[in-house]
Amino acid sequence: MTDKILVVDHLAASVAGQQVVEDVSFSVPATGITAVLGRNGVGKTSTLKGVLGLYQRTGEVTLAGERIDDLPTHKVVQRGVGYVPEDREVFSKLTVAENLRLAERKGAVTAERRQLVERLFPDLVERRDQMAGTLSGGQQQMVALARALVNDNRVLLVDEPTKGLAPLIVEQVTEALREASATVPILLVEQNLEVVRRLAGEAVVVAGGRVVHTGPAADLLADEALTQRLLGVHAETPDSRPDSRQVAP
Ligand SMILES: Nc1ncnc2c1ncn2[C@@H]1O[C@H](COP(=O)(O)OP(=O)(O)OP(=O)(O)O)[C@@H](O)[C@H]1O
C-alpha cells in the first residue's frame, strides 16, 4: 500500500513539435491537495496534459502503483483520473444537468458522489435546466468541478480553478475544493497564493519545464526569499488580501 496516489517520474511532453515539459518528477500524496506552482508559461498545464496523455509524452506515470503512461487519455480517465481544465470546457449549448450527465462514467457514479455535488453546488441544482453557456464564469467553473466530482475518481487534476473569478466566487470555489479534498486527493495548478496557503499540503514548483522545488506548501510560503526567487512574489502575510497576491508573469 503506497501513500502516493500518483507518481510522475522523468516526464517529458511535447505538442506541435515543441517540447513543453523537459523533465518533471514529483509525487502526489494519497490525501489532501498538492499545488503545482510556477510563473506563467513554465509548463504547469502541459504537465497535467502530459499525465493525462493529451500531449505526447515519455517517462513514467504511476497511478496507485500501476503504470498509466502507456495508456490513451480515455483509459487514463477510466482508471480514475478526473480532469478540470483551465478553460472549463463546458458544453455551452447543453443544460447544466446534461453537462453533468455526459460526464458520468459507467460504474463510477455513486449516491455519495451525487450528494456531494448537490451539497457543494446548490446553485447548480437550482439551475439544472439552464444552458451552461449562459452561466457566469464562476457558475461554469462549478459545472466543471461538479463533472469531475460526480465520478468516484482516485485523483483529480484541477487547472487554475479560480482564474478570472471575483473574490466572493474564489471563496466559494476554494471552500468547494477544500470539502472535495476530504474525499479525493487533488493536484491543483493555482496562481492565487492565498488559495494555495489555505488548501495545499504540499507544493511542487515548476520552472522551465522542470521541477525546481518540492516540499510543504506552508514552508515555501513562509520563506519570503524562496517564494520571491521561485515565483517572483513576496511571501504573503496571513492578513494579505486574497486577490492581491498572484504569481508574477
Ligand atoms: N498546444 C500548444 N502549442 C504550442 N505551444 C504550446 C502549447 N501548449 C503549451 N505550449 C507552450 O508550452 C509552454 C508551457 O505552457 P503551459 O500552458 O504548460 O504553461 P503554464 O505554466 O501552465 O502557464 P500559465 O500559468 O500561463 O497557464 C509555453 O511556452 C506554451 O506557449
UniProtKB/TrEMBL annotation:
Signal peptide: none annotated. GO terms for biological process: L-amino acid transport. Residues 6-233 form the ABC transporter domain. Keywords: Amino-acid transport, ATP-binding, Nucleotide-binding, Transport. One of its GO terms (molecular function) is ATP binding. It comes from the Bacteria. InterPro entries: AAA+_ATPase (IPR003593), ABC_transporter-like_ATP-bd (IPR003439), ABC_transporter-like_CS (IPR017871), BCAA_Transport_ATP-bd_LivF (IPR052156), P-loop_NTPase (IPR027417). Belongs to the ABC transporter superfamily. This is ATP-binding cassette domain-containing protein.
